[in-house]
Known about the structure:
- The chain is of the alpha/beta class.
- It folds into two domains: 3-117, Rossmann fold (3-Layer(aba) Sandwich); 135-219, Regulator of K+ conductance, C-terminal domain (Alpha-Beta Plaits).
- The protein is 36% helix and 29% strand.
- It contains nine helices and eleven strands.
- The strands form two sheets. Strands 3-2-1-4-5-6 form a six-stranded parallel β-sheet, sandwiched between helices.
- α5 links the parallel β5 (94-98) and β6 (115-117).
Amino acid sequence: xxxxxxxxxxxxxxxxxxxxxxxxxxxxxxxxxxxxxxxxxxxxxxxxxxxxxxxxxxxxxxxxxxxxxxxxxxxxxxxxxxxxxxxxxxxxxxxxxxxxxxxxxxxxxxxxxxxxxxxxxxxxxxxxxxxxxxxxxxxxxxxxxxxxxxxxxxxxxxxxxxxxxxxxxxxxxxxxxxxxxxxxxxxxxxxxxxxxxxxxxxxxxxxxxxxxxxxxxxxx
Length: 220
């Protein structure tokens, strides 16, 4: 099981802890306010309250031994840099850190942060796509113009196997998985095969370019 530490429990950090817990990760949450710690304790393997600038505490609570560390501190930038440097020097394989400006991003990249997070900007971009493109949700940006989207299956395509629909050839989209409503829950079908038949109400998780997704939706 992957161990992920979340440092900083504002709105973003708290939501991340809950999401990681739902996905089955072992989560260690850190903040300097006990009220925030208590709010997420039920979703963590460990929730600890201490000053993250204390390198000894980071080591004592296993933060430096995590597979992934997410620095979600939003109040000030100096702690983000100091904690990131400590974790990178300790050999944490993947360190993600929050930034609010381009200058902060440049600093974080120079010290070796794996990925820089702009929660508000990224959410705003994806929400804009969701609001403007009916039946399409932007799940993740992969770089090089590629993203992962969830799209509602057009009713006209239901009942056909993926082989006949030729998503890659016709639309430039790769179907990664299918989310299917069953009774009161949604089931994710693993990696779909060519003979997998899509049904009315299915949501397809696809990888491709926004322009190709737009063209697919416009076509149907």
